[in-house]
Design goal:
three-stranded antiparallel beta sheet; mainly alpha; 14 helices
Length: 334
């Protein structure tokens, strides 16, 4: 069956000369257009597998295939947003025609519009898609070299206990509770805003983040300390499913005008909501939590992501620093 309908869209189905079964949505409810796509794909598979020709595929087709094959990614929605922006420069462009000039223009525009680090996120996505087109999909002879902008290493921005208390005092009640919970658990914004009561065991003082909710796609066990438990107890019974709500609805955004105003009144500058996670990690390291334990608590995929906090607790190096003082340096009492 070459065409069949699933929902409102027609799906194409055929077998390539090498015996590979192809099934994909045509993304159209028009049977004639779906048939045209079917014939096009079948013809391209013949040219590719029998005649060893590389099909003239456009960026749009590559972007669509990327979206279809990357639904497992935690930041899949971000890729879709980036691809929507990239379409203004790459829509209809053949993959083989994407060169350094086009890529350079994209990088320059986004760097001017936002920052070099943001531009790098867009360029990285273009690079990943072109590499896949060359190495896995056989749509390109070779992916062009895409160089990213150099980025300065950002310092870790964190709050002292006194600053955190001042911020909590300045925030509206519903935002103060979310902020306090973030400082107590180190959870990412999306995990906190989407937290459901079914993910919490108040008797065992534990919560959990499911693999499909975690950035590293691994489940995270979240031990709930006294701060976290006090917040959860204050929220009990307010909403049947979601933990954090405002006026009866789940909270969708935290970087609001009231958040920015509270930061200003607390005398805190250059601070993002995600820096609450940096604060939580910094407090842990300064309290002596081993880096491997912190890695597990924070759900980081690699220990390298945690090492950036190591400099905040150099006490374990003190004994080594004293060695040259004791054995090599002469004390002069003049």
């Amino acid at each position: 069956m070459a065409l069949y309908k699933r929902g409102i869209y027609w799906w194409v189905s055929f077998t390539t000369p090498n015996g590979k079964r192809v099934r994909r949505s045509s993304r159209t409810s028009d049977r004639k257009r779906a048939q045209q796509l079917h014939d096009k794909l079948k013809s391209e598979s013949w040219k590719t597998e029998v005649l060893n020709e590389i099909p003239l595929v456009t960026w749009d087709e590559a972007a669509y295939r990327w979206i279809q094959e990357s639904t497992h990614k935690a930041d899949h929605h971000k890729d879709i947003s980036k691809l929507s922006w990239l379409a203004r420069y790459l829509c209809g462009v053949k993959l083989c025609d994407i060169n350094r000039e086009i890529i350079g223009k994209i990088g320059n525009v986004k760097a001017t519009e936002a920052s070099t680090s943001t531009a790098n996120r867009y360029l990285s996505l273009v690079r990943s898609i072109l590499r896949k087109a060359a190495n896995e999909w056989d749509w390109l002879d070779q992916a062009p070299v895409i160089r990213l902008y150099p980025e300065n290493s950002r310092r870790i921005r964190w709050l002292t206990q006194k600053q955190a208390q001042q911020l909590l005092y300045e925030l509206p009640s519903h935002q103060a509770k979310i902020t306090k919970f973030a400082l107590a658990t180190g959870l990412r914004k999306a995990n906190i805003l989407g937290l459901l009561w079914e993910q919490i065991d108040l008797e065992r003082h534990v919560a959990w983040i499911h693999p499909d909710q975690a950035k590293a796609r691994r489940a995270i066990a979240v031990p709930l300390n006294g701060w976290a438990m006090s917040v959860l107890r204050s929220q009990t019974g307010i909403h049947p499913s979601h933990v954090f709500t405002y006026l009866g609805k789940p909270i969708q955004q935290v970087n609001t005008k009231s958040w920015k105003s509270a930061l200003m009144r607390a005398g805190i500058s250059d601070f993002r909501w995600h820096d609450l996670r940096h604060t939580w990690a910094s407090w842990h390291v300064q309290a002596g939590t081993p880096l491997n334990v912190l890695q597990e608590l924070g759900g980081w995929e690699s220990i390298e992501m945690v090492r950036r906090y190591a400099h905040l607790a150099p006490e374990h190096l003190a004994v080594h620093a004293e060695r040259i003082s004791e054995t090599h340096l002469c004390h002069n009492d003049k």
